[in-house]
Design brief:
The chain is rod-shaped, with a radius of gyration of 36 Å. It is an all-alpha fold and 154 residues long.
Length: 154
């Protein structure tokens, strides 16, 4: 024998809550992947734009470095590297993946370190003055005569 089930507002409420939860779960199951995919697209676009902004900043700042002989040479080398990167970025920036953007961003961070050093007037290497007098004295003491460079005809 089965018990007589009385249909009242509690039963209707339970059935309503059940269907409400079921529909909500379906909506979340469909909406969440779409939302995450669009967030990833925007994150890639933001990363790409940040990379381009940093690149443009670096390129402009390397042109403003004080023009001492050694600093100018180092700045010129980096500026030529950045010019080559500019050609690449103009051609392929739309198709860059997140990994490629991160790699380029890492390179730009390294260029930023170089820029900071050059802006403080600290060249990468140091220029030493060579004093050949000690070497020439040692050669003459050993009985060898140093060879002078040939005269160029004018």
């Amino acid at each position: 024998m089965s018990a007589k089930f009385k249909k009242d507002y509690i039963a209707y409420l339970a059935i309503g809550i059940f269907f409400f939860i079921l529909i909500t779960e379906l909506i979340i199951a469909i909406w969440l992947p779409i939302h995450l995919r669009s967030e990833n697209v925007w994150a890639l676009q933001v990363a790409r734009q940040d990379m381009i902004d940093m690149f443009d900043n670096l390129r402009g700042n390397f042109g403003r470095i004080s023009k001492t002989s050694q600093l100018e040479g180092e700045a010129t080398i980096v500026a030529k590297c950045l010019d080559s990167m500019a050609i690449y970025l103009r051609t392929y920036q739309a198709g860059l993946t997140a990994g490629q953007i991160a790699e380029i961003r890492s390179d730009l961070d390294n260029f930023q370190v170089i820029l900071d050093r050059l802006q403080k007037d600290k060249p990468y290497g140091r220029q030493d003055k060579i004093d050949p007098s000690g070497f020439l004295k040692r050669l003459s003491a050993e009985g060898m005569k140093p060879v002078s460079p040939p005269e160029l005809d004018k």
